[in-house]
Amino acid sequence: MPSKENEKLIKLALKRFESAQQAESSNRERATSDDEFAAGHQWTQVEINQRNGSPVLTINRIAGTLKQIRGDQRKSKPSIKIRPVDGASDPQVAKILQGIIKNIESTSDAESAWDTAFDQAIEGGWGYFRINTGYTDDDVFEQDITIERIVNRFAVHFDPSYIRVDASDAQYCFISEFLSKEEFDEQYPDFEDSPGVEWDQDRGQENENWFTEEGIRVAEYWYKKPVTRTLYQLDSGDVVNDEIITAQSYELIETEQGLMVASVDEQYDETGKPLPMPVMRVTNQREVQTHQVMWCKMTGSEVLEKPVEWPGKYIPIVIVMGEEKFDKGERKLYSATYHARDAQRVYNLSVSTQLETMSLAPKQPWLVTAEQIAGLQDYWNNAHRYSMPYLPYNHAAGQPSPVRQDGSAVDSGADRMSLKAADDIKSTTGIFDASLGARSNEVSGVAIQRRQLEGDMAAFVFQDNLMKALKYAGKIIIDLIPYIYDTERVVRILGPDGVEQFVTVNQVAADEQGSMQTINDVTQGKYDVVVDIGPAFASQRSEAVQRMVEFIKVMPQLAPMLIDLVAKNADWPGADEIYERLQQMNQQQEQQGQQPDPEQQLELAKGQQEIVKGQQEIQKSKLDLVLKQLDIAGKADQMDMNNEAHIMKVTETLVQQAMQQDVAQAKQTQTPKAAPKSSSGNSLSGL
To answer: What domain range includes position 584?
Structure first.
C-alpha cells in the first residue's frame, strides 16, 4: 500500500486527471474526427449503408489545403534568438546561448518535433513537443538538453485552467501510456498491484481510467509544488534567495551591522594561502510565493518512481495550438479544415451522384411490346451488359420500332452542387486557387501575389501559434542551461549559417590584476527570447545572390564593390574559389592604395608645388603669345589686305613655335624626381 504522503499525492493527481479529461473531452472528440477526416475517412457507416451499393467517392480536396499550409511552414523555418536583459547579461554570452540552442536543435532533430506538433495542430487542433535532459553518453556525467517529439497528442492531459497561449501558467500535466499486464509486470515486478497478482477490484472500479482488463495506465506526472522563499538584496546590487545561498555554500549571519551573507567554505590562492572570507551585507529582504516543478511516475494506485525536483521553473511540455475559440468560457481548439468538413461532404456526395448517373445511363429501359421481343428475350435481357451490334425484334404492322427511354448521362444539378461545394471549401479555409498555384482570373503579378498573400494570412494564425510555442521552448531551455551547463566545459555552438565553433563556458581565469574571473559565464544574467520565422539560411543565401545581382543591374558602377559578396553567398561549384581570388585581388589593391608615410606626404607636397609653378609659367607664356599675336596683327595693318591668308599662316606658325619653347622651359624648371602617385595609383603629373 502507498505511504500516506504518496496516497495524498495520488488522490490529488487522480482528481486533476479527471478534471483535465472532462475539460478536454469535446476537443478530443473533435480532434479524433478531424484526424480521420483529414486521412480520407469522410463517410460514416450510416451514410455508406444508405447508399445501398451506390458509388461512395472521396475526393479529398482539403488534403491539398493542408499540404499548402504545411508547405508554407516547412519553407519558413523558425529561429530562436537570445537578447540580454539586465546588467549582469553579456552580449557575447547571449551569442553563445543562441549557438547552444542552435546546436541543441541540430542534435535533437528539433525540426521534426516542431513539424509533428504543427501537423497535429492544423489537422486536429493542437499538438505537443517536450524539452528533456539526459547524459551526453554512457560513460560521462555531463548532461545535455534535448527537444523531443510527442507523436500521440492524446497521451497528454494538460491543466485546463491555463490562461496564457503557451500554457506556461499550467499547474500540472500528465503524459501517459497503457501497458499490457505482461509489459507492466516486466518493468515493475515489485509493484504490489502488479498484473501478476489479483487486481484490486474496488480500486479498479474507482479508477476505471487507469485500470482496464487489458492493462494499466502509467503516467508521468508533472506538477508545481508551492514554495515560500526569502529574497535578499545585497550591497553589491545582486539579488539572491535562500536556496541559492545554501547551494553556493553561504550562510546568513547576524552581526551588529545587520544581516550578512558569508562564505562557509574557506578559499585559497595559488600558493595555498587562505583568502579573506567574502562577506556581503543584506540591504533588503522579502518573502515571495513561488513554486518548485516536480516529476514522478505513477499509476492510479501507486507511485512507481518517487517525486524528484526538476531543475527549471517551467513544466517542459510545450503545446502548439490551432485556432483557439472560447464558447461560454469553454476553450475550443479547431483545426485548419474543421469548418470545411460539411462542404467536403457535399462535394463527395455530388461527385458520387454524378458517377452513379453516368453508370446508369446505358441502363435506360427500352419501350417495347411483348410481341416485339417474343422469343428474343435473351438478346434484350443482356443488352445492358454487352455491346451488341444489333437487337432483333418482331415487327408488327402499324407498330413503331422499339425505342430507348430518354435519360441524361450527366446530372446537371449534382454538377452545379459540386462546383459550389468546391468554392465553399476555399471560402471556409481561406486558401484559394492562387494560393495553391493554380491560374485564376488575376492578370497582373501584383494581383496574383495579393491573392496568395490572402491565403497565407488566412492560415498565419497557426504559424503564429507555433512561434509562441517556440518562444516558450526557448524560455525553458534558457532556464535550464545554468543548471545543465553549470561547470567549466567545452560546448559546440552553431551559427546561423550552420558553421560550428567550440567555446569554453564558465572558464575561471585570472585577469590582469590577478583576480579570478569567470569567462563566458552562462549561469548569470537574464536573457529574453524572440522567434523569427523566415526562409532557411540556404534559401536566404540564394535570395541574397538574386537581390544583389538585381541591384548590380540597376547600378552597375557598384559591381566591383559587390561581386565578391555575390561569390561568397553563391552555392554553385567553384564559388568559394572565386571568392578567395576576389579577396586576394582586394587585398592587393588595398596594399597599393595605402596612405603614404609623412616623408612621402612631404615629397608629394613638393611635387605639387613644382607642378603649380610650372603651370604658372605656362600661363605667363600664353600671355606672351597673346602679345605677339597682337604685335603681328598690328604689323598686318601696314600690309596689303590681299596678303591676309599669308599673314594668318605666319601667325599660326609663330604661335606654335612659341608654345613649344615655353613648354620646354616649363619642363626644365621641374625637378628630375619621379612624380608621386595618388592613392589610386595614377600619376599626379598629368593633372
So the answer is: 537-592
**Which amino acid is residue 69, in one-letter code?**
I
CB atoms within 10 A of CB 576: 12
Q: Residue 597 contacts by C-beta under 8 Å, 6 or more apart in sequence?
A: none
Class of residue 544 by CB neighbours under 10 A (exposed 0-12, middle 13-18, buried 19+): middle
State the pLDDT at residue 674: 40
Q: Indicate whether 488 and 362 sit together in one domain.
A: no
C-alpha dist (Å) from residue 266 to 245, 272, 275: 15, 11, 7
Most confident segment among 104-113, 199-208, 621-630: 104-113
Residue-wise pLDDT for 582-611, tens only, equals 788 877 776 666 555 556 555 655 655 665
Predicted local confidence at residue 206, as pLDDT: 54
275, 360: one domain: no
CA dihedral sign, ordered 513, 514, 516, 521? positive
Which of the listed residues 485, 507, 532 is the one where a domain comes to its end? 532
Strand residues in 98-142 grouped as ranges (E): 126-135
Chain centroid offset of residue 397 CA: 85
- Name the grid cell of 93: 554570452
Give this prediction's pTM. 0.70
Is 497 inside a domain boundary? yes
Considering the domain architecture, whether residues 567 and 657 belong to the same structural domain is answered as no
